[in-house]
Amino acid sequence: MSATISLKSTRPRRSDATLSFIQYALVIVGLMLLVGTVKPAFSDSRKDDGGQRQAAAMTESVAPTATSPATVSPSLMAEEEASITTAEAQAVPALKEAVKKETFAAAPAALRPSLQRALDYVSDRYRVAPEALVPIFETAQSVGRERKLDPLLIIAIIGIESRFNPFAESPVGAQGLMQVMPDIHKDKLPEDAGEQPFLDPVTNIQVGVHVLEEAIRWRGSLTGGLQHYGGSPTDPATGYAKKVFAEKQRLEKAAKRGSNSRA
């Protein structure tokens, strides 16, 4: 009877030991799983912290260079400013020279004093504002120099033909300062002529002088050329040429004596 009792008491002990072992094993497995879960999270957080620290370090190392002038050496800044100032100082004379050349090329030559006095005379005689006569006299001066003609001769013809009215038009269709016939002398226009080139003072004088040169060559003399230009080549009295010469003489006197000279 005692043996039976002892056997029964032994079985519960074995069952308790087995249960304890299983519980212990489960605890170990749970701990292992817990450690396996926490460890990657901890390593990721360390990685994030490390990345943030590296980014902050890179920002700190780059930002002062880009934005903070305090990181630049004062001597280096002084050298850069000096080099910029030197470059500007070297560029200024070249720029001034370029502007000077462009202005000189664009602006017409100033009138000679004698032509200026003749201009004053014409302004008084024909009652034309001096400002309106300046481009006419400047063109006569430049074209006369180019064509080897006395500019006062050109101005005298303008006075006889149009009385310095650039919009003058004759009953037969002659136009402008020198009363050029458009239908006959279109071939003498420059390539850059506008829509109404014969009413442009500069173009009209250029074409008119060209016509006069052809007439002089055709007739063989200045008087004959003037008669041809005036439309009366067969006039034995050469009335047109005489009028031009008389006007030219008045201009010459005015050019010599001053703006108070009158006819």
From TrEMBL:
Domain Transglycosylase SLT as annotated: residue spans: 143-216
Membrane-spanning residues: 21-38
Species whose genome carries this gene: Accumulibacter regalis
InterPro entries, per the entry: Lysozyme-like_dom_sf, Transglycosylase_SLT_dom_1
Identification of the protein by name: Lytic murein transglycosylase
Swiss-Prot/TrEMBL keywords: Membrane, Transmembrane, Transmembrane helix
Residue segments, region Disordered: 43-79
Entry keyword tRNA-binding: no
Comp. bias intervals (Polar residues): 62-74
